[in-house]
Predict the 3D structure of the following.
Amino acid sequence: MKFIRSVTDVFGYSPFKSLRLHAEICGRAVGLLQRQFHAYRKEDFDTVEKLRDEIDELEHEADKIKEEIRGNITSSLMLLVDRHDLLNFLTVQDEIINYCEHVGHMLTFREVKTAPKDIWDEFDILLAKIMEAVNEYEKLVDHIATLLASSFSKKEIVEALLHVPEIENLEHECDMIQIGLHNKLFNADDMNPLDAHLMIEWVVHLGEIANNTARAADRFRIMILSR
Amino acid sequence: MLTLIVILAIIVGLYMAWNVGANDAANSMATSYGSHALTLKQIVFIAAILEFCGAVLAGHRVTSTIAKGIVPIQFLDQHLVAIGALAALLSAGFWITLATYYHLPISTSHSIVGAMLGFGLAAVSQGYLTLSDIHWFVLFKIVASWIVSPLFGALIAFMVFTAIRIAILDRYDIPAVEHVFRYLQVGTACYVAFAHGSNDVANATGPISAALGFLGHETPIWVLAIGGLGIAVGIATWGYRVIETVGKRITELTYTRGFSAEFATATTVLGASMLGMPISTTHTLVGSVIGVGLAGGLASVDLRVVRKIIISWLVTIPVAAGLSIALYTIMVIFL
């Protein structure tokens, strides 16, 4: 609009809504990954490929949000949290979906035929646990809204951060399941070695999803507490 | 000839008042639209009425400062004063129009002060006044008030929002608190409109009353009413669009934050009006918003605007004064 004089530039870019959206997309990607494993087990490989593409799309969407946030956070902004803490947090949160994408692709490398049922069951348990951790993580990040509304009141901070040890516990449980799976896979003498190798890769990368979820939760805590 | 000049000054003064309503008043009211405390129609209605009331009931002190506080017009021939006032209005009006076209966040108050100073300096150069006749101390106080007012707005806003945060937000349910503050923000919106009218009407009525030659006594109510009317018309004919455009960019403002920023702005501006200081309401609003931000009330405040405002101060005074000197010098020859 022409002929307008305004000082409302003082209301700067706020990244918090986008941060929540980014976390939500990470959650959706983990959900798709879980469905992808179920499809794989049922040997529905068309669906596996379709879901891989969907995860790719989500990853691309998350990247765009990340770019938007990084591109708009300038040093002239006075944010409620430290700029570097926020960007560090975002980087780790982004790793969650990056690893989802890796695993999504790894499921399309090869059709594993020689894995015993108990190994597949363990994968189901691991994915359910990762899903649980990510859901808990989303709840944590959703607290941004109430934290902002209350101007980071002590009560709201305490309430939000209750989710962090919860997430760390879930991540620890994921570790335990991973160790069990590794044990089984390295002793699955009847398995095709390539099948076993690929599944070991899955376990490692799925572990990274859980690890980064816990790390992002920790970064979130640092961001909130070191304001 | 004098009558013609005075009539011209009133017309250009009305254009000035229209500008004040179209942009400055609209900017001050945009926070109420941004937080959805009021609808656009309600804001236009409130702003038009309360700006008018502020202008008529509390606009005389700043008007007097602009009219005779800077240039000692009692030492000058009435004909020259009328030309000077017209030159000041024309140059400030031109600069404001240009700056508005280029979206520069300049202040109408700063423009008219610079322009009146230009008129004074031109009178000095022609030997009608000496340099020491110019009321430099008043000018110094005015410039100081430009620096103090945003800081004061920031301080009040910081204190008000901190008090709200500790005493209310920490204890009660946030949506319930915000709901109550929606009604309180309607109050501060009225307060802002009144305060703004009382201060910025002078940008138009100051030179008009100088041109009319009201020297020893108060500015008559009808002059203030003309200014108030010009502001109201500015809001109704153009300001509503500015409120809409600007308000849409303010999405992060809740009622408690809007209340704090508006209360601080209005209090500072009304205080300045009582002291007869022509300050910028929008710059005070920026200070107040930063104050709310410092108190932890806003997700993000962009401090780049501070630099823009300082640059606009530095540019406005010489430009408005220079234009005014040039116009006055030319007009004295022909009129």
Summary: The mean pLDDT of chain B is 94. Chain B has one domain: 2-334. Residues 2-334 of chain B form one domain.
